[in-house]
Amino acid sequence: MAIFVNMVLGRHFPKILISYGLCLLLSCSLSSCTETDVACLKSIKASLEDPFNYLKSSWDFNNSTEGYICRFTGVECWHPDENKVLNLRLSDMGLKGRFPVGIQNCTSITGVDLSSNNLDGPIPDNISAIIPFVTSLDLSSNNFSGGIPKALANCTYLNILKLDHNQLSGQIPPELGLLARIKTFSVANNLLTGPVPTFQNANISREDYANNPGLCGGPLDPCPGSSKSPHT
Q1: Domains, in order of start, for the chain
Q2: Per the confidence metrics, is the pTM higher than 0.85?
């Protein structure tokens, strides 16, 4: 009897495994694979003050249909029938609070626009781990303070980085010059000092650095002590 059972299992066990694996894949694609993006938006809503009720009136999670979060204000999805966030555009909503680190659960997000709000505190030091695939990051016209994280240099897909009109201080990390895809970079109207980065493929103007107390180099005036002629 045991030999017969082993023969049957031996003949059909691979098919059983394949069927089980297929069921797991189907169940993932239908529900759990997008649960992280729903958790992402729930966390963002919970962490921010929303005095004008832009999120409260639109971000209703009492729904189970696929793609329902794609109809939320400021949310753009990869596909309208899939709960997978592509871009988050929450500009000019009067939002208050810190940078919403729960955004890390939107694992496929490529664009983040939190500009023209009342967000404050530091930009997280591990920003590249929170939004590793972002191509556009706009945090301009807020009240962010502290230094510009060096980890932004690890967001290697960045094309647009706007940090202007904040309270950022210290030096701009020279590592940002390694962002090979950057086309737009602005840190005007902050409290930054020291030499500006040397970008490989971007033409950054004086206006992008304007109204900082002590920036120098690049399109700005030479830094104190620097020499125009190379040293041997």
Answers
A1: 33-216 (3.80.10.10)
A2: no
